[in-house]
Amino acid sequence: MKFLMLVLILFSCASNNEKKKLSQKEQDALYIKQLKKIRPLLLSDDFPYMECEEEGSHQVVKQTQPDIEFWKSFGLLELREKGVELRANIMALKYVEIEGKHQFNATFYNCEKVTDVKLVDEIGMCKPSEQKVFKLPYALDESRAVGEEIISQVIRHHAIKNYYKTYAVDNVKYSYTKKELQASAKFYECF
What gap in Å lies between CA 117 and CA 172, rounded to an integer? Predict the structure, then answer.
């Protein structure tokens, strides 16, 4: 009996070590993976033909959320984390404000046919169909690498929404006075 108790205690201690806190670098890598793996359902998506299976749903409630309009359409990192756990690649987002609290809901899907675009180097490409500067309010107390991935995904979503085939990102920089990330992008209809 004592041996069994000892084994249980050792197993408990070993499982607690697995749940240790991640370093900033490991946390950034995890967020970047989540940003690349799962994206919101966009208006341009042809959902009935994407061959999707529902994987579940999740809700996050927050007292305050800066830049609420952006996060309502982009999807919180907490929702993306749950989506990756459920092995989803698309999330349908809903937002409700109840008694001053921000309620973010996501239904997760694993879809077979997902529209995507390619990131390219603009050398040798056809003439761009559109050029645009993107700005993202972002405090540098958060990770710069995660911010750059967020703005990259915003640009990617813009390309998918507007039916481009390829895009190029250039000149990603941070404005300390405006506390925002900026990037210029070119969108192409050719490969």
Answer: 19
